[in-house]
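FIELD: query
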Amino acid sequence: MSEQPKIDIEGESEPVVALALLRIIMENSKEGVEHDRDWILSTYADCLAVVGGAEVSYEDEEDEEDEG
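FIELD: result
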């Protein structure tokens, strides 16, 4: 992954917590995986929804459950 700029995240609002969660997800991505703008915005939207209390399901997980 390319070097990420250092950004200090401060506060406890839902958008700030969602941004911190997005950052954790990106930092724990597989080595060499590059994320495009659409992926970043979509994942941030998911993070914001989860922080707000929503449950987010993913197509890959649903497909695996159907097969099992």
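FIELD: remark
The helical segments are 14-27, 37-51, 59-67.
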